[in-house]
Design a protein that fits this description.
Layout (H helix, E strand, L loop, with lengths): L21 H16 L6 E5 L1 H4 L10 E6 L7 E2 L12 E7 L8 H11 E12 L27 H10 L2 E9 L10 H6 L6 E8 L8 H28 L1
Parallel strand pairs: 1-2, 1-4, 2-3, 4-5
Antiparallel strand pairs: 5-7, 6-7
């Protein structure tokens, strides 16, 4: 497995129109993100990266929405994704639409997003699926350096592992748009074989309690509980004997 951090310089697209079928990807993301956006609530929504800024989030109940990026149109804050100029635990939800796909250090971005998110805040990540028709283009030497094949296509399993280390609970994950050159993504094949979709979405919530109890702590809790249970039984027996 390749390391997450890299020094490789990649051409980062500033809009969906800079990549083949990019408007299809944007429209498909707009459609599949709507059910999730409708559930969000709070005061502040961050859309991190130039591609995130072009996603339609008008249906979201969070009224204060801020676009953050280094360059591009419709940005309210100019900043790096890995150095957000916001206070800790001040943001309710963050949208990273293909932000990690062109990042040299995705771990840093995830840690920074985790820092600014409130407890039980939402993190929405989209990206390209390596095991798809689009991902197969990485095997063709002439396409590797072109957008979008020059992007980093992390698997959902790998992203979920990273999120679990930060104590996030994945509440939704999906793949869609099996045929990238088709505006509808190929309705029939997308319905029956969604795992081959070239686009991927993961929705996760920040949790403050451990999602899985440490076995050592669980055993220690049992040892502390056992004497107390035994003492209760002995007191009950003494009471019965005195009667």
């Amino acid at each position: 497995m390749k390391p997450a951090k890299t020094r490789q310089i990649r051409h980062v697209p500033h809009s969906w129109d800079e990549m083949p079928w990019g408007d299809y990807y944007r429209d498909a993301l707009n459609q599949h993100l709507q059910p999730c956006l409708d559930r969000l609530y709070g005061f502040h929504l961050l859309k991190i990266g130039q591609l995130s800024a072009q996603i339609d989030t008008e249906s979201c109940a969070i009224s204060h929405q801020v676009n953050v990026g280094l360059s591009g149109e419709n940005l309210q804050v100019i900043a790096e994704s890995g150095s957000l100029p916001f206070e800790s635990k001040s943001i309710d939800a963050c949208l990273l639409a293909h932000t990690l796909a062109w990042s040299s250090d995705p771990h840093r971005i995830l840690r920074e997003v985790d820092r600014v998110l409130i407890d039980d805040g939402w993190m929405i990540i989209s990206g390209f699926n390596l095991f798809s028709v689009l991902g197969m283009g990485k095997l063709i030497p002439g396409l590797r350096r072109q957008v979008p094949w020059n992007s980093r296509m992390f698997t959902q399993t790998r992203l979920i592992d990273w999120l679990s280390l930060l104590n996030y609970e994945v509440v939704q994950r999906t793949r869609f748009q099996v045929l990238p050159w088709n505006r509808q993504g190929g309705k029939v094949i997308s319905t029956h074989l969604p795992a081959l979709g070239c686009l991927s979405i993961i929705v996760a919530r920040k949790r403050t309690f451990p999602l899985i109890m440490n076995p050592a702590k669980k055993a220690a809790a049992k040892r502390r509980l056992a004497p107390a249970v035994g003492a209760t039984s002995r007191m009950r027996q003494r009471h019965q004997d005195s009667d």
